[in-house]
UniProtKB/TrEMBL annotation, chain A:
Organism of provenance: Prosthecomicrobium pneumaticum
GO molecular function, one term: oxidoreductase activity
Family: Belongs to the short-chain dehydrogenases/reductases (SDR) family.
GO CC, alphabetical: membrane
Protein name: Short-chain dehydrogenase
Keywords recorded for this protein, A-Z: Oxidoreductase
Pfam families per record: adh_short
Origin superkingdom: Bacteria
Organism ancestry: Bacteria, Pseudomonadati, Pseudomonadota, Alphaproteobacteria, Hyphomicrobiales
TrEMBL record, chain B:
Residue intervals passing through the bilayer: 162-183
Domain FAD-binding PCMH-type residues, every copy: 9-188
Entry keyword ATP-binding: no
Keyword Transmembrane helix included in the entry's annotation: yes
Protein name: FAD/FMN-containing dehydrogenase
Organism field: Prosthecomicrobium pneumaticum
Length: 250, 451
């Protein structure tokens, strides 16, 4: 990790994956700016990262559902240490699909928080990274974005939209030497999935995912399935012929 | 956040479904305690207690691993404040990194596994191979933040809420919920250890070696071949170590590289494997009587941590761990009697740790370490014969004026607990009315009914 990014912004800094990744950066001596909306959680996380070796930690309060405020958030995060080497966009919400089908406002909110908001934020950051001609924009999407499925297509569509947006952003930023990393985790034992029954070989810890992210950043990967076996699982899910697919219920 | 989950003792004999609370913040945890849900509460850390001290059938468990944040570290004084769910492995990985001259901060007391939480280390007032020099874990605790159902959040130190502080060190989690603690780390001139292993033939030789090692060696313990009988009774290996000034060592890994993936259908520890292990282990030094080396402290202090989930090797029936300490004047005779009883039973133990505790008093009302000699053993559960052996060992220890270790125990009688821990009566006054544990009910610290 010694050659990891030295100025890091974590958007959704108290999410479990961001915490685990932030700890790795801190232990390598990075400077971090934590962006989120839970003041007590951000302070606790900042203290933790300082003890772990972070050279500096700044806190930035933001509500990611407030789309109009996003450009200012991106600017403030960029300015905290006079530029960034890595931005990790790690916020999101996983509502119950049945709720989204019953409540159009909830569906719109989910699409906004999981797609529109990270897309707008990444786009604002892209301008800065492009001008600096270096760095990594990493966004946590999901394997759920790989194919629309009855059990979570509201969330999945937002994540899928994000994947497509990042693909385009990557195309644009390639010339500037900026890496755009699309992180697609499977089941991760986090606050977001606390309501789901857990356990079994498909579930990963946030720390495992963070380790994979660190490796993908170092290797300048474009798309990361984490843990790795999700790449194969989703290849099969995407390839299932529709008549067969429609007989599944997942 | 509530649910239900099965929690197993490390000995794998007890597997019990509990309602479980999983606080993500100290505020959230304190609110859960204040809410005082019906049935008793008990904190559960990293699940390394062998018996029933961390289980609470009929009540709920508070899973503490999410409270894993560091809060502050002062590199001038070595004072570390962290949440109760931080593991010792994590503290070592983050703070015990060697400086250019090989020196570094280190936990002053490290038990045989680093995969325990700070809360658990305090609640069981754990000890390590340097118990004769540094005392128990609690001696290096400066402050404890406790959530009580009847008094809210309290800071306990040696001067503030001092009675509750002493009760909470080794208090088996019954005095309230430990939210965070301040520990005093120790600066060592070299993180690596200079080690020496020495073969000995009799228990008398062990006691002689141990007496001559007490001053010059910080970490001492012995392994004894408990299958040996007659004139060979008491043969074993004595291990001693001290920090090597100027020699650096990296922290041990955060997780074992290899783990036992599944529980084999029968115990892998049996008569044949035990004879083979003992014969090989005794010949570790080849034809030499002793061997010196300079090594990182991880493999020296945490040999069992090399293999994750090693407890599964004992199969689906699990195993008992036995650990007791007998006072100095009775130590030599009682230790010989214990080994004779084990040899006579034919139930050997692979793990054997014979260790002398020093004169440093433990402060906890229910702390296990006291001056004397401690013996720890593992026995696969073979039913009635194993229980009979444990009862025999318990009788020898109690007759010698010793005590058994609650963190390892599943079988001690109430009378043995009360005789071994005379401060139990004073301790009762500090028990939080909303807390309970299987152990506390078993030894009569609480009524038999769920509270």
């Amino acid at each position: 990790m010694s050659a990891g990014p030295s100025r890091v912004a974590l958007f959704g800094a108290t999410s479990d994956i961001a915490v685990a990744y932030g700890r790795r950066c801190a232990e390598a001596g990075a400077r971090l700016v934590l962006v989120g909306r839970d003041p007590a959680g951000l302070v606790a996380s900042a203290d933790d990262l300082r003890v772990r070796g972070a050279a500096a930690v700044e806190i930035l309060h933001a509500d990611f559902a407030d789309l109009a405020g996003l450009p200012a958030v991106a600017e403030a995060a960029w300015a905290a240490f006079g530029g960034l080497d890595l931005a990790l966009v790690a916020y999101g919400a996983l509502p119950d699909q049945a709720t989204l089908e019953a409540d159009p406002a909830a569906l719109a909110e989910t699409l906004e928080l999981n797609f529109v908001s990270p897309a707008v934020l990444a786009d604002r950051l892209a301008a800065r990274f492009e001008a600096a001609r270096a760095g990594t924009i990493a966004v946590i999407t999901s394997v759920a974005g790989d194919r629309g499925r009855r059990s979570n297509y509201g969330y999945g569509a937002a994540k899928g939209g994000c994947q497509r947006f990042l693909e385009g952003l990557r195309h644009r930023l390639a010339a500037a030497g900026v890496t755009v990393l699309d992180i697609r985790p499977g089941f991760v034992a986090t606050k977001m999935t606390a309501h789901l029954p857990r356990g079994g070989p498909l579930w990963a810890t946030p720390d495992r995912v963070a380790a994979d992210i660190a490796r993908a950043v170092a290797r300048r990967k474009a798309v990361l399935y984490t843990p790795w076996f999700w790449g194969f699982i989703m290849m099969i899910v995407r390839a299932l012929p529709r008549p067969l697919f429609h007989r599944t219920r997942f | 956040m509530t649910g239900s989950a099965v929690f197993a003792s490390w000995g794998n004999r007890l597997r019990i479904a509990h309602p479980v609370l999983r606080p993500a913040t100290r505020d959230g945890a304190a609110a859960m305690v204040a809410g005082g849900p019906p049935g008793g509460l008990l904190a559960h850390g990293n699940g390394r207690s062998y018996g029933d001290v961390a289980l609470n059938p009929g009540g709920a468990l508070i899973a503490m691993r999410r409270l894993d944040r560091f809060i502050a570290f002062d590199p001038e004084t070595g004072l570390l404040t962290c949440e109760a769910g931080v593991t010792l492995a994590e503290i070592l990985a983050v703070l015990a990194r060697p400086a250019a001259d090989g020196s570094g901060w280190l936990l002053p007391v490290m038990p045989g596994t680093r995969f325990v939480t700070v809360g658990g280390a305090i609640a069981n007032d754990v000890h390590g191979k340097n118990a004769h020099r540094e005392g128990s874990f609690g001696r290096h605790v400066e402050a404890i933040e406790l959530a009580r159902s009847d008094a809210g959040r309290l800071v306990c130190t040696r001067t503030e809420n001092a009675g509750l502080f002493a009760a909470t060190l080794g208090g088996l989690g019954l005095t309230g919920l430990i939210l965070s603690a301040t520990l005093r780390l120790r600066r060592v001139a070299g993180l690596a250890l200079e080690t020496e292993d020495i073969r000995f033939d009799t228990l008398a030789d062990f006691f002689r070696l141990d007496a001559e090692s007490a001053d010059g060696w910080e970490y001492t313990a012995a392994w004894v071949d408990c299958l040996a009988r007659g004139p060979r009774l008491g043969r074993g290996l004595y291990s001693r170590a001290r920090h090597a000034a100027g020699v650096a060592a990296p922290p041990p890994a955060r997780a074992p590289r290899f783990s036992v993936p599944v529980t084999p259908p029968v115990s892998a520890v049996n008569g044949a494997s035990l004879s083979a292990f003992n014969a090989l282990y005794l010949r570790r030094l080849g034809s030499r009587r002793s061997r010196r080396a300079v090594r990182p402290y991880g493999p020296v202090l945490f040999p069992l941590d090399a293999l994750g989930r090693w407890n599964r090797l004992y199969g689906p029936k699990g195993f008992f761990q036995f650990q007791a300490v007998v006072p100095p004047q009775a130590a030599e005779a009682a230790t010989a009697e214990l080994f004779a009883a084990i040899a006579a039973s034919g139930q050997g133990s692979m793990l054997v740790v014979l260790k002398r505790f020093g004169a440093i008093a433990s402060e906890g009302l229910l702390s296990f370490p006291m001056p004397g000699t401690s013996l720890a053993l593992d026995f696969p559960d073979r039913g009635a014969s194993t229980r009979a052996l444990l009862a025999r060992l318990e009788a020898i220890v109690m007759a010698a004026g010793g005590r058994l270790y609650p963190a390892k125990d599943e079988t001690m009688a109430r009378a043995s607990f009360e005789a071994g821990y005379p401060a139990h009566a004073a301790f009762r006054a500090h028990i939080d009315p909303a807390f309970s544990s299987a152990f506390a009910r078993r030894v009569g610290l609480l009524g038999d009914t769920v509270r």
